[in-house]
């Protein structure tokens, strides 16, 4: 069993308390690696290292172009290591190797993009209305950034934070989920190889209640970037507010995938399957509510069931597998609990609804792809995030009802629209309360396009030009050019 160490100040260290915890394979159910169990003392060491690196001329005085070159070099190293990192990530969190390989091959683009932006973060000269004064602005890094990432797509969601934060000139303390730390620690070795000064990126591992709170509240942390559940996100927000820290929060979702009567139905079926059963439903953008026009409801459900029944479950390292295990034991239990809640509320289970006991699933934490019909918009299964392969189908009669149902949750991360009408597509894009709206596609993301939520789904944006602004602060500089000081008792 491999034993890992944390990265602090350029050194690989054991936890201050000397303790470790085991990480388990969601497919075999067996422990395969030991992860350092960090303590508040480890957080303090990591933040101190990041703060020292931020002040060190080796990082602080490096040119923006040179900083960008480091990020691009990191992207090259990730590309070269994509296959190995993908296998580690699949073993650690149970996501399909085909998906993880695709993500790892795409992750370098974030480092290329923000590496290219690094020397284009320009201030402005303002034609100020005060005579005898020159005014301009500077874009400056914030300082030490705390990046806290979840277990479902660990390295991709880390890249969404690390690339813009480093491109803007900050230093980082990265805390991965305790359920998927191995890939983060393997990834950490690439920073030194790319040439980043020691302490620019630090990785501390452990449990949120033991080190996460200390990291968020640390007085030398200038910014928190968090991806995870909305309840934890609320706690992060409240804790950060005590020291007036800016935050970026990418939280939960209850996304609606809306199928109108003029949709290309077979494509819509594929889109709904992609939205909920891909990644075993363990994605914040999961299209866990399929809103289907009543005129085609029965036909759509029949076609959907025909496709969903063919989903191949099994070893996520097998390229033929289409639905893998749930990543954690607690999440497995939570998904099964929600299934029982839905049945008790009167929803009709037309597919799945049980743990998967197929031989190909071994001893892993599998749940059969599950579909409910006769779901009312007010049911818990239609309001609360399940984060598993569980779909609620809700009929609607017209566009206004579809909008009302889609917007009728606390969340607003994403939505899908299936229609052949450009007018309807544009109207839905305007009126749906979601940070991302897909039309005739689903689960598409890019380093070039902003990603984030409305309402309880979060604050701020990741990816695209918007993301780097989350890691900068603007300074206004005033210079007198008149050579005279006017009345000192009157505001100039």
Automatic annotation (TrEMBL):
GO molecular function, one term: aldehyde dehydrogenase (NAD+) activity
E.C. designation(s): 1.2.1.3
InterPro entries from the UniProt entry: Ald_DH/histidinol_DH (IPR016161), Ald_DH_C (IPR016163), Ald_DH_CS_CYS (IPR016160), Ald_DH_CS_GLU (IPR029510), Ald_DH_N (IPR016162), Aldehyde_DH_dom (IPR015590)
Active site per UniProt: 250
Keywords: Oxidation, Oxidoreductase
Sequence ranges assigned to domain Aldehyde dehydrogenase in this UniProt record: 13-477
Pfam families registered for this protein in UniProt: Aldedh
Cross-referenced CDD domains: ALDH_DhaS (cd07114)
Family listed: Belongs to the aldehyde dehydrogenase family.
Protein name: Aldehyde dehydrogenase (NAD+)
């Amino acid at each position: 069993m491999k034993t890992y160490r944390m990265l602090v100040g350029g050194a690989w260290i054991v936890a201050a308390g000397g303790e470790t915890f085991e990480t388990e394979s969601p497919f075999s159910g067996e422990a395969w690696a030991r992860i350092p169990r960090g303590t508040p003392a480890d957080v303090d060491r990591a933040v101190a290292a990041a703060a020292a690196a931020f002040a060190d001329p080796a990082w602080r005085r490096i040119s923006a172009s040179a900083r960008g070159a480091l990020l691009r070099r990191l992207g090259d190293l990730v590309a070269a290591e994509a296959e190995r990192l993908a296998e580690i990530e699949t073993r650690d969190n149970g996501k399909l190797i085909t998906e993880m390989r695709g993500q790892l091959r795409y992750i370098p683009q974030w480092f290329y993009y923000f590496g290219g932006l690094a020397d284009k973060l320009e201030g402005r000269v303002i034609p100020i209305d005060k005579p005898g004064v020159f005014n301009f602005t500077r874009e400056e890094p914030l300082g030490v950034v705390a990046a806290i990432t979840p277990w479902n797509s660990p390295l991709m969601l880390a890249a969404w934070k690390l690339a813009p934060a480093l491109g803007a000139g900050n230093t980082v303390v990265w805390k991965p989920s305790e359920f998927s730390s191995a890939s983060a620690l393997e990834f950490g070795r690439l920073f030194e190889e790319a040439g980043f000064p020691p302490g620019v990126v630090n990785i501390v591992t452990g449990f949120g209640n033991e080190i996460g709170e200390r990291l968020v509240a640390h007085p030398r942390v200038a910014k928190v970037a968090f991806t995870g559940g909305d309840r934890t996100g609320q706690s992060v927000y409240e804790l950060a507010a005590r020291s007036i820290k800016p935050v970026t929060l990418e939280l939960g979702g209850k996304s609606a995938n809306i199928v109108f009567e003029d949709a290309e139905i077979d494509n819509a079926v594929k889109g709904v399957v992609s939205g909920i059963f891909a990644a075993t439903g363990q994605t914040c953008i999961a299209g866990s509510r399929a809103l289907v026009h009543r005129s085609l409801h029965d036909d759509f459900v029949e076609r959907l069931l025909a496709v969903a029944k063919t989903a191949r479950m099994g070893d996520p390292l097998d390229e033929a597998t289409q639905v893998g295990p749930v990543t954690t034991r607690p999440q497995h239990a939570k998904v099964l609990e929600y299934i029982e809640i839905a049945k008790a509320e009167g929803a009709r289970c037309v597919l799945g609804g049980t743990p998967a006991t197929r031989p190909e699933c071994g001893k892993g934490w599998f749940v059969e792809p599950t579909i409910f019909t006769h779901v009312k918009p007010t049911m818990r299964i239609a309001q609360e995030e399940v984060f598993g392969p569980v779909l609620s189908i809700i009929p609607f009669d017209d566009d206004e009802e579809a909008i009302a149902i889609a917007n009728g949750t606390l969340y607003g991360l994403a939505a899908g629209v299936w229609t052949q009408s450009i007018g309807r597509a544009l109207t839905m894009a305007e009126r749906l309360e979601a940070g991302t709206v897909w039309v005739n596609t689903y689960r598409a993301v890019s380093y070039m396009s902003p990603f984030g939520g409305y309402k309880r789904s979060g604050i701020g944006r990741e990816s695209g030009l918007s993301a780097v602004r989350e890691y900068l602060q603007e300074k206004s500089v005033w210079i007198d050019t008149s050579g005279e000081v006017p009345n000192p008792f009157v505001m100039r």
